[in-house]
Amino acid sequence: MSYAPPDPFGWIDDEAGRRAAAGLVRSLRPRPAEPDLLDLASNDYLGLTRHPEVTAAAAEAALRWGAGATGSRLVTGSTTLHAELEDALAAFCGFEAALVFSSGYAANLAALTALGAPGGLIVSDAGNHASIVDGCRLSRAATAVVPHADPDAVRKALDGHTGRALAVTDSVFSVDGDAAPLAGLAAACRESGAVLLVDDAHGLGVLGEGGRGALAAAGLAGAPDTVATLTLSKSLGSQGGAVLGPARVITHLVNTARTFIFDTGLAPAAAGAALGALRLLRREPERAGRAREAAAALYGGLTAAGLTAVRPDAAVVSVRAPSAEDAVRWAADCRTAGVAVGCFRPPSVPDGVSRLRLTARADLTDRQITAAVSTLVSAAPPRA
User: Contact at 8 Å (CB) between 185 and 152?
Assistant: First the structure.
């Protein structure tokens, strides 16, 4: 009688079955080079990823510096282009210094692991992005997860802690599009001498004067006890991330942040594109306000039709669905009708409520907004 060894990946089939039963199967859907749908799913808030100036800046950088960075930032991966981008980001957002990473995810991991430590304390909002959650885990600091957008809860968590401490929050939360109470959080941190770390991924380019971000809008940009992270892949239409803060913090990250020291540097084309987008945004600051206006118009149209949506504080419009299965079907029906929308389901949503997530863009026309609202309302499941 022959012996059949157990299947080492049999457990994957079991988990796949459970995901399918719960309506939580995810799959890749490659998009064509030329858009064939009205895009309300991407994070291209300012409509810059295809802007001729931005793509030309990317192409010029690739032709001059090469297709890749060729190594980590501390070996061969730093160019004068990276330094120019860091100076431009710091100046635009109002901080003393900046450090560019290969992604916003890597930037959050760097900030949290370099500023947190065993024996320290990180206070994290319950609605924070997965990159923040992972950064807290990797920091080896004690982590207190507090109720969403609650400065008093942060104050209580920090009270009595005598070692290194920081509170971390998204500036605009990616699930519902609501803004964090940054002034209240900063006050809570200052009472105990804690650092405030803010991920401004969804605020840069949309909030603040000319899109300078949520920290600028709150009067916290450049504060000596405040650090920001951000992504270049949303409003700036490129790819990559950055940490901004006091110069000594940035120097500390250069020497200690593993996602900086051991990761290949940001590709020159991405750095060039981000610089091109920053130059354009300086020249056309009205794009920030237009993105917010488009979000307000989407929200107004959807709620007027009886759908349940969260009032947007920036460019994200969140529309609740009755179930994960309904959310998937609703998004698919919208796609069939020519509108691409995001579909958020557990475990991506911390509260377990499935949603469609719409991205308002500065280049959306009034006619496109009206058409999008009509499509979502027509395709909506009962009690959406």
Answer: no
Alpha helices by DSSP H, listed for the chain, are: 10-21, 52-65, 80-93, 104-115, 130-139, 151-158, 182-192, 214-217, 247-256, 258-261, 268-283, 286-304, 324-336, 366-379
DSSP designation for 95: -
Cα 136 to Cα 113: distance, rounded to the nearest angstrom: 7
Among 33, 15, 46, which residue's Cα sits nearest to residue 294?
46
Mean of the per-residue pLDDT values for the chain?
95
| Distance between CA atoms of residues 85 and 65, nearest Å | 14
**Distance (Å, rounded) from C-alpha 233 to C-alpha 59?**
17
Q: Return the closest-CA partner of residue 272 out of 79, 105, 97, 107.
A: 79
- Cα Rg, the chain, nearest whole Å: 21
Closest CA to 40 of 287, 332, 301, 340: 340
- Do residues 369 and 297 make contact, with C-beta atoms less than 8 angstroms apart? yes
d(CA 325, CA 91): 46
Residue 207 sits at the vertex; the CA angle it makes with 203 and 210, to the nearest 5 degrees, is 125
Calpha distance 132→111 (Å, rounded): 9
> If you average pLDDT over residues 259-286, what whole number do you get?
98
Are 245 and 228 within 8 A, CB to CB?
yes
Instruction: Give residues with Cβ within 8 angstroms of 303, minimum separation 6.
Output: 309
Distance (Å, rounded) from C-alpha 115 to C-alpha 166?
8
Tell how far CA 49 is from the center of its chain: 16
Q: What confidence category does residue 123 fall into, taking pLDDT thresholds of 50, 70 and 90?
A: very high
Helix (H, G, I), strand (E, B) or coil at 167: strand
| Structure tokens that stand for 75 in this block | 């070996």
Nearest to 214 by CA among 189, 179, 174, 169: 179
Residue 325, burial from CB neighbour count under 10 angstroms (0-12, 13-18, 19+)? middle
What one-character-per-residue DSSP string does 304-357 give? HTT--EEPPSSSEEEEE-SSHHHHHHHHHHHHHTTEEEEEE-TTSSTTS--EEE
Reported as type and span, the H/E element at residue 358 is strand 355-359
What percentage of the chain has pLDDT greater than the value 70? 99
